[in-house]
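seq as requested:
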Amino acid sequence: MNLSESHSDISDTRGSIYWNIGLIAISILLTAFTIYDQVFNRVGLAYIWDEQLRFQRWVIEGSSIDPWQYRIFAPYLIEGIRGFIEWIGLTPSYGRIFFGLRILQNLLIFIAVGWYWTKIGVSRYFTVIGMMIIAWGFTYSNYGSGLAFDTYFDLLLYILAALAIISGRFFWIIPLTALAALNRETGILIPVLLLSSAVELRPKISIDKHRVYIAIAGLLIFSLLSVGIRVAYGPRPFDHMHEPGLDQFLANLKDPFTYYSSLATFLLFPMLALLRWRSWPGILHRFFWVLVPIWVVVHSFTSVLAETRLFLVPYAVVIIPAVFAGIVCLDQNQT
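C-alpha cells:
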C-alpha cells in the first residue's frame, strides 16, 4: 500500500466516523421533534396515563381483543423494564416507561434508516433529506391510535432486516423474524425479503441455497411462534366497526380522511418513486414486489387506511430510498 492509498483510507475512516456522529445528532433532533408531536401534540399525556395503560394491562391479563392480544412483544418488554426498575430499587412509572420506549423506538428508527439508505447507495445528503421526510410522515400518521408500539417495532425490524440482507448478514434474519412474530403478524414478510434476494436471473439462473435455508427457517419460526401465541391465548373476540373484506374496503373508499391522511403522510413520493423505476437499485425492485402489492391490498381490506402509520414499512424500506436512488442515478449493482 502506498502513501496516497493509506491517506485515502484514513480520510474514509474519518469521514465515516464524522458521518455516524452527525447521523446520531440528526436522529436525536428528529426524535425530539417527532416525540413532541406524537406524545404531547397528538396523543396527549392524559391518554398515556389512561388509555395506553389500560391497553397494556388488557394484553398482560389476556383480556384484549383480536389481533392486539397476540401482539405481545411490546407489552411484555414494558413489563420487563418495569420489573428491572423495581429490582434496582426504584419506583417504576408506566407513563415514563411508555415515554422512554417511544423515544428509543424513534431514535433507533432514524439511525437505522440512515445506515440502511447509505448502505444501499443513497448519498448522505439525500439520506438526511429522507430522514426529515420520514419525520414529517410520523407527525401525520397517528390517526386513530395511541403510541402503537407494535407498529413502530414492525418498522424498525423491517429496516434492520433490509440492512442485514444488503450487508450480507443473512443469519440476523432469524432473530429479527422471531421478534417480529412476537410483535405483529405483518412481520411474516421479513424472511420473504431474504428469499427474494436469493435468486439471480442474469447472466444465468442461480439460487443461493444458504439464503433459501435461512429464509425457510425464518418462516417456520414465525409460523410456530404465531400459532403458539394464538393457542396459548385462545380465540379472542373481534370488535371492529367494519368487517374485514369488502365492507372495510368500501368504508376506506368512502372516508374522506383516507385521502387527506395519505397525502399528508406520504405526499407524492410514491408517485415519484414509480416514475424513477428504471433507476432503482436492483434489490429495491425485489423488496418492492415482496412488500408493496400485498401490503397495500391486504391492508385495504382489513385495516383503516386513514391510519397511515400502517404503511410506514414499505415507505421507509422501498419508496423513499427508491426516490433518492433514482435522483442520483446510482449504480444498480451497488449493495
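Confidence is low (pLDDT under 50) at residues 328-335.
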